[in-house]
Fold this protein.
Amino acid sequence: MPGETHNGMQCNEFETLLFDALDQKLSEGQQERFRAHARVCGKCGPMFAEVEAGQHWLKSLAEVESPANLVNEILAATTGIQSYRLQAPAAAEHRASLGERIREWADSLFAPVWGTVRQPRFAMSFGMAFFSLSVALSVAGVKPTDIKSADLSRSGLRRTYYTTTARMVKYYENIRLVYEIESKVQEIKKVTRPDERKQEKERERNHKNNTSGDPEPRQERNYSRDENQPVLASGPQNPLAVSVITTRRDV
Amino acid sequence: MEDAQIVNSLVRRCIAGDAVAWEEIVQRYNRRIYNICYRFAGSADDAQDLTQEVFIKMYRTLSSYDVERGAFMTWLTTMTRNLLVDHFRKTKQDRVTDSMDAAPSEHEDAMPLSEQIEDKRLPPDARVQSRETGEVVHEALQKLSPELREAVILRDLQDMDYRDIAAVLKVPEGTVKSRINRGRAELARLLQRIYRQVM
């Protein structure tokens, strides 16, 4: 009952002081009178006990940790960037050094690129490019372990360039020489065997003119015999074996 | 520099497009907002989604924050509370706190809250042993009506003063105190019933 008085305090005064009592803001004298009223008042006492207990239960609830990925998810959803990861929680107070500012600037510049690069399809492409490069280097005879710091100097790089160029030119010259020799040999062969060449041309012409659809006549050469194998010619008058060396036919 | 000045400086930098300042704001307030959402919504997954939503909305409307009109924390809490209320309306998780002592009816929410909160799978003593007290209190908190719940969360879990709570909830300070009183008393009665059952 609001108007009821217990221990010199009315119920409406008790209700007014209730929040100050729960927040520990009453003076010692007020606290004494407040508690005394709660002890004797059949309405205010239980009400105060319940409210105090409820407050106690609520205060017992500990603060929960937010999920570890929450900040990154928020940043990704808002700015599209994962995190600049500030080290100091009070960065506004912290005066960043030149190095830190450069790093932050570089991070802001490269973070989106890095985010893209980390996507699986790009990672796969880069992997393949790296594989191709390593194969090309190994074919060219370049070993990364052989590279010394001296090789990366200006004079070292120049030397490597000239050595590689000289090697390439030499390789090309060698190849050219081989082809020249081969073509010379072919020409000599043509000059020394003009009859065979004619026969061959004739055979080719016949083959082109053959439109009957019949299969070509089988060649009667005995391929089972070695070309330099001796041929035994036997006759009734001359039973002696005569060895004849077959000459190689150039095709 | 005072906290309010630091925050205002961060907000200004952020409005100017400083992404580092925005991350600092997220780092500063994510835990607090997550806790409000978790205690109000009840589940960690919902709290995570709602916290993200709060920050996305904040990012879009940060330029509308007026330093002269009030503290940044009050502005942010108001935004959080509005989103929570919207979420609550969408999910239709209406609970009637005052029905705790009401007679049972066909409506599920009309049954006594102490029965609603009961874990039917375990006997009461095993339930108390297996669960942390905090979980029981957290579960009981979900049974309060949203008006009472938000009031006690802001006061007893977030330590906001009555004036700021009144600004966030857009109700007079007296109403705030009344809701806090009722919320605490309801919670205590609910927990007393639960513990009386298991004793």
User: Anything to note?
Assistant: Chain B touches chain A through 48 residues (CB under 8 Å). The two ends of chain B are 54 Å apart (CA to CA).
